[in-house]
Every structure is written in C-alpha cells, then in structure tokens.
Design a protein that fits this description.
Elements: H1 7-22, E1 35-41, E2 51-57, E3 60-64, E4 80-82, H2 85-91, E5 109-110, E6 120-127, E7 130-137, H3 148-160
Parallel strand pairs: 5-7
Antiparallel strand pairs: 1-2, 1-6, 2-3, 3-4, 6-7
Length: 162
C-alpha cells in the first residue's frame, strides 16, 4: 500500500514558503540629515551637566559650550566644539532611532518638558530644506508611546558622553 502525501501539510508548506519569500528585507533605518542636534536640559539645576546639547554634522560630533536653556520659540543657537572620533562613533546611530512621525507634529513642544523639574529634550532636524525642532518631555508618560524608545536612546547617548 502506497502512502499518500498529506495534502494539508503540503498546502501549509506552500503557504509558509510564499509568505517567507514575499517578506521584504528590513527597511533601511538610516535617517538622512544635514545636521542633527540632540540634548537635554533641566531648569532647576546647578552645574555644567544641567544643559547638554550635541550636534552631529558631516560625520563629526560637536558639543555646545554655551549651555543655554532652549526656547520653544526658535532654534537653539549654540557654540560648538568638536569632540573625538570615538565619541562620534558612540553616538552616530542616534538618528536611526529618530521617530520620523515627529516631522508631522504641528507643535514644537510635546508633553510638558521640565514642568516638574524632571527635564526635557531638545531635538533639531535639518535635511534637504526640512528644518524643525522640538522640546520633548523627559517624563515618558506625558508623550505618545511612539517616542519612548527615542527618548531612552537620547538619554543613553548623552550618558555615554560623560
């Protein structure tokens, strides 16, 4: 007696094969930019680490030396000093976590940055004529979940530069 192949198993195998072969490779998550500024700030704070602003530009990392509290009315006007290549290497992938949905935000302020002395983040994006900035609340419960990973990564990168 000849054994017949299980039709259900063959169909299932075909469906799985088609699904796997039709899957697209992971999208390129590299965000293009002319310059990308990221930092954090605390109002009720003393010392140099109260305001930390960094700029990625042309494969280099710079640190702002002015340490001015950012405004929600205009772009941050920093005075930047170039940091080491090792520090650039440690932070250059921050743009891969940049939530491009933020480009659709109408407001420059997301949440209530530093409202309870918990700080805020300053983010500036400039690429190909699109130049925007945002102040994000560091308290993640005050911002949409789609920005939580980015907030964590910005804090992680700034901590790695100490």
């Amino acid at each position: 007696m000849k054994k017949q192949p299980n039709i259900l198993a063959i169909v299932l195998l075909l469906v799985v094969s088609l699904y796997v072969s039709s899957c697209k490779k992971g999208k390129n998550t590299t965000v293009q930019y002319d310059h990308f500024i990221f930092g954090r700030f605390y109002g009720m704070c003393g010392g140099e680490e109260c305001i930390e602003i960094f700029k990625l530009e042309q494969n280099k990392l710079y640190e702002d030396t002015r340490d001015q509290y950012p405004s929600n009315l205009d772009f941050y006007n920093g005075t930047y000093l170039q940091l080491s290549g090792a520090k650039y290497d440690a932070t250059k992938d921050i743009v891969n976590y940049f939530p491009t949905d933020i480009l659709n935000e109408k407001d420059t302020v997301i949440g209530s940055p530093d409202a309870g002395d918990w700080g805020g983040l300053y983010i500036e994006y400039d690429y190909n004529g699109v130049h925007r900035f945002w102040l994000l609340d560091k308290m993640k419960s005050n911002v949409p979940g789609k920005y939580h990973l980015f907030i964590d990564k910005v804090n992680e990168k700034i901590d790695s530069l100490k």
